[in-house]
Amino acid sequence: MPAASSGTASATSQSPVARCAALADDTRWNILCRLGDGELSASQLADLLPVTRQAIARHLGVLHAVGLVEQTRDGRQVKYRAVGSQLSRLAGDLDAIGRAWDQRLDRLARLAESRANASGG
To answer: What are 83-96's pLDDT values in tens digits?
Structure first.
């Protein structure tokens, strides 16, 4: 039976900034997209992507360090999967930023409209 990894990323490495930085790399983004379909080993990911298995392992290490992937071991094989709760948290953080900007832009539009109406334009 697979055993869950006991490694826990530090609070700093799990910040939204660290997660966004990890996802700023195209290969890591593609790895995470592939893991969204289910668990895969580094070798399986290397077969799907145009990079070496060693490069995949390094990228998985970065994603694991920021809490976006987890690993399980089944004998000699290590499988990786995306951590949905962490991805949802990051999406929520980004959504909050987007809503704040939408509110700012709405206020600016209302202010511009009220000034235009006040000047008779």
So the answer is: 887 877 877 777 77
pTM of the model: 0.69
Cβ burial 15-30 (10 Å sphere, 16+ → b, else e): eeebbeebbeeebbeb
Three-state SS across the chain? Answer: CCEECCCCCCCCCCCHHHHHHHHCCHHHHHHHHHHCCCCEEHHHHHHHCCCCHHHHHHHHHHHHHCCCEEEEEECCEEEEEECHHHHHHHHHHHHHHHHHHHHHHHHHHHHHHHHHHHCCC
Distance CA 59, CA 80 (A): 12
What pLDDT does 45 receive?
96
Model pLDDT, residue 7: 43
Q: How far apart are CA 108 and CA 49, in angstroms?
A: 45
Of residues 31, 86, 83, the one with CA closest to residue 57: 31
